[in-house]
TrEMBL record:
InterPro entries: Amidase_6. Keywords: Signal. Residues 1-32 form the signal peptide. Residues 243-268 are annotated as: Disordered. Residues 60-206 form the Putative amidase domain. The lineage of its organism: Bacteria, Bacillati, Actinomycetota, Actinomycetes, Kitasatosporales. Pfam families: Amidase_6. This is Putative amidase domain-containing protein. It comes from Kitasatospora kifunensis (Streptomyces kifunensis). The keyword Transcription regulation does not apply. Residues 259-268 have a biased composition (Basic and acidic residues).
Length: 268
């Protein structure tokens, strides 16, 4: 696992360096022909190279795979498959996975929980990234994905799920959002897509368990045309410094954890 993460990080760091050279780099041949769907690109010599989007989605999945059973964001004590994680719930798990790939500008995967509770995005809005349910007083994780241009809600289409996409469950009263997870593997013709999620701890759990649901297609380059288009992100979509080293277990903290419970109901 650590070797795979290092390979992804090295590739992503190289590409981020190209992007960081300025916006024109995105218009160069290496990016102009990159498929919008995030599929792999092929170069001369029949060598398959992952696209920029694939690399960042891969880092997102690697983080999820390494943290699906953590007790809390700063406590790597493993819990059993299906166990509750009251101090590390579903939206926070997805948000930290995205932050690990630099997809939450200014926020890193090891930042304090309160930074996710009160995240101020480049558009000036404050988002509660610990929340998936719609509450009038909060902009939640789903709102962040839509506003940023990072996510596109494609509806109930599990057959389109790719690793690094997000699934949102609508099982609350009146079809309210109740749960979210990260797609770990795509359908392969014989098996359905699988999901990593928190509270309860799930690893490669069948996509159908999250029905009724919508698939949120994650496109990292969407940040360049979302709210980040009016900020320096359009020129330098830099990843957090934590990407420059292999992920490691965060030390346990004696600080009190910020407990946030999604009000819509239990999570699968």
């Amino acid at each position: 696992m650590q070797h795979a993460i290092r390979r992804r990080i090295a590739g992503a760091a190289l590409i981020m360096g190209l992007v960081g050279a300025g916006a024109p780099a995105l218009a160069g041949p290496a990016f102009a022909d990159a498929p919008a769907t995030g599929s792999t690109t092929t170069t001369q010599g029949s060598t398959d190279l992952p696209s920029f989007s694939d690399l960042l989605r891969g880092i997102t999945v690697d983080y999820a795979e390494a943290h699906w059973n953590w007790t809390a964001w700063n406590d790597s004590t493993p819990v059993a498959f299906g166990a509750d994680q009251d101090n590390y719930q579903c939206a926070e798990f997805v948000a930290r996975s995205l932050a690990a790939a630099g997809l939450v500008p200014g926020l890193g995967p090891d930042d304090p929980q309160d930074s996710y509770f009160h995240y101020t995005a480049p558009n000036g809005k404050t988002y509660d990234l610990l929340l998936i349910t719609d509450l009038p007083q909060y902009h939640n994780l789903y709102d962040y994905l839509m506003d940023s241009g990072l996510g596109t809600d494609v509806g109930d289409h599990p057959e389109q799920a790719r690793p690094g996409d997000v699934v949102v469950t609508y099982a609350g009263p009146g079809g309210a959002k109740t749960h979210t997870g990260l797609v770990a593997t795509a359908a392969d013709g014989t098996s359905e897509a699988t999901v990593d999620a928190h509270n309860r701890a799930r690893n490669h759990y069948g996509y159908h368990f999250y029905a009724p649901s919508h698939l949120i297609r994650i496109e990292p380059l969407g940040l360049l045309t979302g709210f980040g288009a009016t900020t320096d992100l359009a020129v330098t979509p830099a990843a957090p410094k934590s990407l420059m080293a292999a992920p490691k277990a965060a030390p346990k903290s004696t600080a009190p954890l910020l407990t946030r419970h999604d009000p819509a109901g239990p999570q699968v």
